[in-house]
Amino acid sequence: MSISVSVPNETFRKMVENSGCEVDIVDWDLKSPAPQDFIDLVLLPLISDKPDLSLLGTVDSRLVQASSIGFEHITPHIGDKPLANATTVHETSTAELTLALILGQMRGMQRIVRSQDEGVWDTFTAPGLADKKVLLIGYGGIGKAIAARLAPFEVDLYRAATTRREDEHGIIYGTEEIKDLLPQMDIVILIVPSAESTIGMVDDEFLSLMKDGSLIVNMARGVVADTDALVKHADRLKIAFDVVDPEPLPEGHPLYSHPNVLFSAHMGGYSDALWPRLTALVQRQIRALTNGDEPENVVN
Predict the structure, then answer these.
(1) What is the pTM of this model?
(2) Dist. CA 72–CA 85, nearest whole Å
(3) Above pLDDT 70, what percent of the chain?
(4) Structural contact between residues 8 and 28, judged by C-beta atoms closer than 8 angstroms
(5) Are strands 83-84 and 133-137 parallel, antiparallel or unpaired?
(6) To which H or E segment does residue 145 belong?
(7) Cα-flanking dihedrals φ and ψ of residue 242, to 5°?
């Protein structure tokens, strides 16, 4: 059985060509209306390619495959077409970057780099990670990957999610308990999806509950943390993030130059692991549709 698969660029074309299945490849970069009315599998490019997602309304399909784990930016345009996200692709890379930002802040890497640039031999004591209380808010795939990578650093890990429950590692606190936990924490990590309940959850009240010198890390979505509140508390807290609202930050924004801020430019999943893992997922989806099986990661 042959299926039609749309590819947004040459990289995706190679994924599809090497799937081992009989496929009719349709070139569609989502910059203009779909070239045909029906495509079995629509592959979406990376968000950084800036596809016009409103064009999804110009085609019918059996499955739309996102290249990201987050999909809230796609759902307004998807209609009743099945949508799959990229679970299994970005978890490891995002967890790695989370640890890099945390270690950078907790071991004073900005000061180290600046001292090297200035030719200064600068020995100092930094807080470090060992024995610190860490609150991980969000316990999906990326949250679990972050938790696994924190374990060797001998932290005291607290986890929070929508509903309170227990697993083999202990208590997962409910969101209603977060405010009681915040004053105790040395590090707070955000890895929640963008939803009505999470937009703006890190506001002035939230940050005011954190103790002086503690670290807030946003790896979720920019809209989860109020940027003005981050600026207000930057003098007394450490701040790290991979996402912010707006993106990119406007030229001259105070978070660019503040000594207590360390950030990356929305690149959590962008490592050498991305393309092999995305290729494997796309090829599994092609095989599933070819064989009449259920595809992975359907979110709607």
Answers:
(1) 0.94
(2) 10
(3) 100
(4) yes
(5) unpaired
(6) helix 141-150
(7) -110, -15
